[in-house]
Write a structure and sequence with these properties.
The chain is 32% helix and 34% strand. It is of the alpha+beta class and 104 residues long.
């Protein structure tokens, strides 16, 4: 989280709203560990990572949706190991990501 604080503080200092996505559960293999974080500003800037590839871009979109509604949400992303390589992902497994607006 420390590596995200500089950007989060800058965005909030500029009056931008920020959402924080956190990996709260990992089933099987995943590119990022439990507790990995991604911060997204209202204009789509991001710092950190919860996964990579198409999952990362989906998490950014969910974060932007959370900022527009103000309501946190739990989202799940997953794919079977045998299918992962076919769609260009490094590993299969499932992750659950909690996404919340930051108000500090």
């Amino acid at each position: 989280m420390k590596e995200l604080l500089t950007d989060i503080n800058q965005w909030q200092g500029e009056g931008k709203r920020v959402a924080l996505a956190t990996v709260v559960q990992v089933y099987g293999s995943a590119p990022r560990p439990l507790g990995a974080k991604l911060a997204v500003s209202e204009d789509g800037a991001m710092v950190g990572s919860v996964s990579g590839g198409c999952v990362e871009s989906a998490a950014v979109q969910e974060a932007l949706d959370v900022l527009s509604t103000g309501k946190p949400r739990l989202v799940s992303y997953g794919i079977a190991d045998e299918t992962a390589w076919e769609v260009g992902l490094a590993c299969g497994g499932t992750i659950e990501v909690f996404i919340e607006p930051l108000d500090w």
